[in-house]
Amino acid sequence: MLVSKNVELRASYSLSLVNQNTGLQETLCSETTTRVFKSSNAACFSPSTLIARVDDCLRIVCTVTVVKESWVETTRGMDTKVPPSDLLEHFGKLLLAEEGSDVTFSVGGENFPAQKIVLATQSPVFEAQLYGQMKESMACRVTVEDIQPEVFKALLQFIYTDSLPEWDDRYAMDRLKLLCVSNLVDYLDTQNVATTLALADQHNCDRLKDVCIEFMGSSDEMDAVVKTEGYANLKRTCPSILVDVLEKNIRKHRT
Q1: pLDDT per residue over 232-255, tens digit each?
Q2: Which CATH number is 169-255 given?
Q3: Which CATH architecture does the domain made up of 86-165 adopt?
Q4: How far is 156 from 122, CA to CA, in rounded Å?
Q5: Locate the BTB domain: which residues (predicted)?
Q6: Residue 95 region, left (φ>0) first, then alpha (ψ -120 to 50), else beta?
Q7: Backbone phi, psi, residue 173, to 5°
Q8: What is the tens place of the pLDDT at every residue in 196-220?
């Protein structure tokens, strides 16, 4: 290998004297620590022990052990980029394709096929309904009352993809939007107000945004809000909203 140019190798050695009568070897010196040898370097093994010749005849065995570079070391510098998980994307396709569906929900005259196991893993209510003692556990068709088809469709999308559909103002779904706002206001608390505020700003829900800002402006609630993860995310991703909170609170205290 040292004959090749620009080559490095690691090796150790041992020198043994061969008995002329018995043929047995007796180690004279050895270097167990590996050394690096380069083709550009004329370095050689140079044992420190001097060997005297006997009867002008001397036989020495030199054993060189070359250490191969490990696979881990040769690949350590490789930059492997792992793509983000697309599991939720596949679940979304599963919902749309209706493949393997084993239950159908009837909501307001519309049918929504789904997979029981997916629903049960995401919701304890669905788990009890589809696998528990409830009568729906034996049925392949379940009728759902008191909910709009659009809302139930959005619920399924959230269960399968952990995301909600984008509201498009072209379809004038104002009533559905107001229903969502009403429900969010009813469940507003210190743990979710910052996240809800970001959602309101994203979807241009001024009414919900005002309620969140008023909630955060309360002297009794703000200290608890700033300790939440939602507030930290809001501060990092939507700092302009916090300016609105500050300005409205200043105006509130002046009046």
Answers
A1: 888 888 888 887 777 766 666 655
A2: 1.25.40.420
A3: 2-Layer Sandwich (3.30)
A4: 10
A5: 101-164
A6: alpha
A7: -90, 50
A8: 888 888 878 888 888 888 888 775 7
